[in-house]
Design brief:
With 282 residues, this protein is mainly beta. Helices cover 8% and strands 46% of the residues. The model has no long low-confidence stretch (mean pLDDT 96).
Length: 282
C-alpha cells in the first residue's frame, strides 16, 4: 500500500484549482476515502464542501457507494429495509495501493476497497484537470471498479433497499451551501424535481457566483440517472444502482467517466451545453 504524500494539488495553467487528499484520517463511521477539496473556480471561488454539519460524511468530490455487499462505503447510517436509516458497524475504507502517474494536471492511481481485511473491489482511477477558457476549466474523473474475488459482488443504494428517490452511490459532488438554493437544469429539464432521477447528457448546478456542469462522457455513464439535491443541500451524483442492484461478476468491471465544468458566474442553458460538449471532447 502507498503511504506516501497524503495530498497533491491540481492546477490549470499554473493556477491551483483543487487539492486531492489520498489518505484521510476520518473516523471509520465516515467511510474514509480519497477526496477532492477544496475545488475552486479559476477566480478562486470554492465550489465544494467538506464534512458539512448536515451530512458530515460528505467529502467534497469522491466516489462513494452506500452498499457494497452490505458494507457502507458512503459513510453515516445505512438504510435497512423495514427499519430505515440505521447505525451499523459496517463501514468500509478506500486505500491507495499505488500511484502510476502524477503531475500538475492530474494523476492515475490504484485503490483497494476494503471491509476489514477483506478486499471487495479494486479501483483504477484517473483524474485530469484541463482549462477550457479564461473563466472555466474541466475536471475529468474516470473510475474502473473490478471484482477481484471468485464470487459476484453487488452494489446497492437506499433506493434498491426500499427508500424511493434515494438512488445515490457512485461519483458524488457536494457543493457549498448558500443563502439560496442553486438553480438546476439539464438539456431538457428545469428544476430539481424534474432533473432528479432522470438520465441526461449533462446537468448544471448554478450557484450565486459559480456554475457546475456535469456531463456523462461514456454511454454507460449517460444511462445512469442523476441524483440531485438543491433545496435540502446542494449535491449532484450519478446513480450506479437506481432501480436494481448492480452485479459485478468475478473478474468483471464497471467503468464510469464524469467530466465536470467548473465555471465562474451563473451560466445559462445554452452556454452550459456548449461547455459540456467542449469538456467531453477536450
Amino acid at each position: 500500500m502507498d503511504t506516501g504524500s497524503s495530498s497533491l494539488t491540481l492546477s490549470c495553467s499554473g493556477c491551483p484549482v483543487a487539492r486531492y487528499t489520498s489518505h484521510p484520517l476520518d473516523a471509520s463511521r465516515m467511510s474514509p476515502r480519497p477526496f477532492l477539496h477544496p475545488v475552486t473556480t479559476l477566480a478562486g471561488t470554492v465550489v465544494t464542501e467538506y464534512r458539512p454539519s448536515d451530512h458530515p460524511h460528505h467529502t467534497g468530490v469522491s466516489v462513494a457507494v452506500p452498499d457494497v455487499d452490505g458494507h457502507n462505503f458512503w459513510g453515516g447510517r445505512t438504510y435497512v429495509r423495514g427499519r430505515g436509516p440505521t447505525e451499523l458497524d459496517n463501514h468500509g475504507t478506500q486505500h491507495r495501493e499505488s500511484i502510476e502517474r502524477r503531475g500538475a494536471d492530474g494523476f492515475v492511481e490504484k485503490l483497494s476497497w476494503r471491509a476489514g481485511a477483506h478486499e471487495l473491489l479494486r479501483e483504477h482511477r484517473t483524474v485530469i484537470a484541463a482549462q477550457l477558457s479564461s473563466s472555466a476549466w474541466a475536471l475529468d474523473f474516470t473510475f474502473l471498479l473490478t471484482n477481484p474475488s471468485a464470487r459476484t459482488v453487488t452494489l446497492g443504494s437506499p433506493a434498491t433497499n426500499g427508500r424511493p428517490g434515494a438512488a445515490y452511490g457512485g461519483f458524488f459532488w457536494r457543493a457549498p451551501t448558500e443563502e439560496e438554493a442553486p438553480e438546476v437544469f439539464t438539456s431538457d429539464a428545469v428544476g430539481e424535481r424534474a432533473a432528479h432521477g432522470s438520465p441526461a447528457t449533462w446537468l448544471a448546478l448554478a450557484g450565486r457566483r459559480w456554475t457546475l456542469v456535469f456531463a456523462g462522457a461514456t454511454d454507460e455513464t449517460r444511462r445512469d440517472p442523476w441524483f440531485v439535491r438543491a433545496a435540502e443541500y446542494p449535491g449532484v451524483g450519478s446513480s450506479l444502482a437506481s432501480a436494481r442492484r448492480l452485479a459485478i461478476e468475478p473478474g468483471g468491471s464497471v467503468a464510469r467517466r464524469v467530466v465536470t465544468v467548473v465555471a465562474d458566474g451563473r451560466v445559462g442553458p445554452g452556454p452550459a451545453r456548449a461547455l459540456a460538449v467542449q469538456a467531453v471532447s477536450t
